[in-house]
C-alpha cells in the first residue's frame, strides 16, 4: 500500500503530462519508464537497506532521488491544477480545449526548479530561529533562561556526520542554558549510524542535554538507541522529569515516550508518571515528540509543551493536510487551553521525502520570560 500510494503521482504524470506531449512514441515510452523507475526510490531502499526509513545510498544519490521524486509530485500537482482549470473553462465556454505543449513545458520546468530548491532547503544546516515564551509564575531567576530545541534530525546517509557536526557547532555557538532534543534523532540501526551520530557527543549546555524518543526510534531498537544517547552524555527523559535549580528557584523539564511505543511493546506516554514527585509550584516544560496530546498536557498543568514530528508540513499548503492528522497542530505557537504549545518545523526530516518549500528548518532558541499580569 505504501509503494502504491507513492506511485500514484507518477502514473498521473505519465498519463496526463508525458503521453499528450508532441514527442515520438519511443521518446514518450522512454520518458515514462524513467519516471516510473525514479518513483520507486522507496522500493529500492527497502530491498537494498531493509527499510524505507533508512536508505543506505551515497548522499548525492539520496539528493538526486529526492529531487526526482519531488519533481514528479510537483508536476502531478501542477498538472491537476491545469486539468481542473481547463475542465472548468470548457464547462463555461461549452467547447473542447486542448492544453498547449508550451504550458506543459512551463509547468515541467517550474516543477524541476522548485524540487531543486526544496531539496536544498531541506538538507542545509538550519538557521537559528529566536522565539520568546512568556510563562505565568516563572521565577525571576529564570527570566531570560535560554533553551535550544533540536528535533527530527533523522541522522542518516543524507543528514550525515558532516551535517551533524555542523549542527552541533552552530548549536554550541549559541551558548544556551539547556538543550532539548524532542525525538526522531535517527533513522537506521546503531550499527549503521554510529559514525553519523558521534558528533552529538560534543553538544554542550550549562544545564545539560535532554532527549526523548520519537516514533522513528521505535522503528529500530529504541532501547539500544536510548542507552546509546545516554552514553553520548545526554539525559534521558522517558515518562520522567528533572528539576533545574537556580538560586533557590526551580523549573521542571519533563519528557514522555512516543505514542507509537505500545506498537513496539513498550510503555506509551504517561505524563502523570512523568510528573510524579515534581515540585508543585515549579513551572513545567514538557517534551513530547508528537503534539496530539497537547490538550491532556494542558489539563495537567504544563506551562509549555515542545514538540516536533510534523516537520511543519514540509510544503505549503501540504501543511493543512498534516495538521488534520495532528489534532490541528503543525507549525509554530498554539494556545491550548491556557498552555503554550510550540511545534517545531524540525532540524531536518525523513530522507524519504526531503523537500521543504515555504516551511524552513530551524535551530530554535527559546528565551523564557515572566508573563506580565494583565491590568
Quickly name the level 1 CATH class of the largest domain.
Alpha Beta
**Which fold name fills CATH's third level, the topology of the largest domain?**
Purple Acid Phosphatase, chain A, domain 2
Q: Which parts are unreliable, with pLDDT below 50 for 5 consecutive residues or more? A: none
Please state roughly what percent of the residues sit in beta strands, choosing from under 5%, 5-15%, 15-25%, 25-35%, 35-45% or over 45%: 15-25%
| Secondary-structure class | alpha/beta
The overall pLDDT, averaged over residues, is 94
Strands of the largest sheet, in order across it? 1-12-2-3-4-5
Main pleated sheet: 6 strands, mixed
Q: Count the domains.
A: 2
**β-strand number:** 12
Counting DSSP H or I runs of 4 or more residues, the number of helices is: 11
Shape: elongated
CATH architecture assignment name of the largest domain: 4-Layer Sandwich
How do the helices and strands follow one another from N- to C-terminus? HHHHHEEHEHEHEEEHEHEHEEE
Could you tell me how far the N terminus lies from the C terminus, measured between alpha carbons in angstroms?
57 Å
By CATH's scheme, which homologous superfamily of the largest domain applies?
A: Metallo-dependent phosphatases
| Radius of gyration based on Cα positions | 23 Å
The helix content, as a percent range, equals: 25-40%
